[in-house]
Design brief:
Two copies of one chain form a homodimer. Chain A is mainly α. The first copy, chain A, contains six helices and three strands. Chain A binds a DNA duplex (30 and 30 nucleotides) through α4.
Chain lengths: 153, 153
DNA sequence: TCCAGTCTCTTGAACCTTCAATGAAAATGC
DNA sequence: GCATTTTCATTGAAGGTTCAAGAGACTGGA
């Protein structure tokens, strides 16, 4: 029986612990600065930001959830709150009766315009000020490969 | 006035989006497999795992919270639940009346023994099976630098 | 010694996410 | 066509996290 566990060795541990630290602390850090500056969580900000890039600033809920790295249920709850705050509108999809389209409102656009500079500055100070061009490329590539693994699982 | 925003260019975006994807999806993935296998969240598992490595398998709540990448409040709530499940005990610190010591119970040790192999396997399949030795070293180093930035902020 | 300030931890309320159930519409298979 | 299955989205409940407040214990200076 070869069910012996291949434990993490010291080198692997020395990489794993900081990685866990990163994934556990970064969302909180982003939440904190966005909440302070514009009263939004990072996920809420992400929803609006993704929508802004979309054609007609409109997108199906499922696609939006996928691009925002969240569950459809989570997005649905968040969309209800954002809609209540006048930052987003939902409407029936004309071509598929099952789908709902989420669209950015003028209020949503304006909030993004106010929020974006501070958020970019936060992101720069946490990430891009620290790394060289080449390191940034590498970091992105590694993150992409891990996300692919997660999605495959 | 030089308050012009230095937006993220394409290369930076191409790194930032996957990194966000990573930090938003990895905790959920770890939660999911641990919840399925042993009924614990990743944070709960982390609390027990950190305790296991500690001297006397005992540690002050604040130190534990720090090493687990969570707030003291979060740890306090979690410790109450873990204590209720008999996985952990809290006791007064003999040398500092403000502090509380958290210690691993036999039940906690046993649960860890059951949970660890599957968890290591999950981590391997998501991270270490994907990267070379050198890449792993780099990933850890980058994560460490970002965490340092977060803590400095 | 005393007291103001700080540190450690807990608590309850508010809020958010997850999970499972549901309903409606579209696609599939016979 | 019709029944079945799958997809899309919402909902309410359960459970977890955050935030602000507060209790108790230590510290250092007057």
């Amino acid at each position: 029986m070869s069910d012996a566990v291949q434990w993490l060795d010291d080198e692997e541990m020395a990489a794993w612990l900081p990685l866990i630290g990163l994934v556990m602390r970064l969302p909180g850090a982003l939440d904190h600065s966005l909440r302070r500056d514009v009263g939004l969580s990072h996920f809420e900000y992400g929803v609006l930001a993704v929508l802004e890039q979309a054609e007609d600033q409109t997108m199906r809920m499922s696609d939006l959830a996928y691009l925002c790295n969240g569950s459809l249920s989570r997005l649905s709850h968040v969309a209800r709150r954002l809609e209540g705050d006048g930052l987003l509108v939902r409407s029936a999809c004309p071509t598929d009766g099952r789908s709902t389209l989420a669209g950015l409102t003028d209020g949503g656009r304006e909030l993004l315009r106010n929020a974006a500079p501070g958020h970019v500055q936060t992101v720069r100070s946490l990430i891009f000020d620290e790394f060289s061009r080449e390191e940034v490329r590498l970091l992105g590539q590694m993150a992409r490969r891990i996300v692919a693994r997660i999605q495959a699982a």
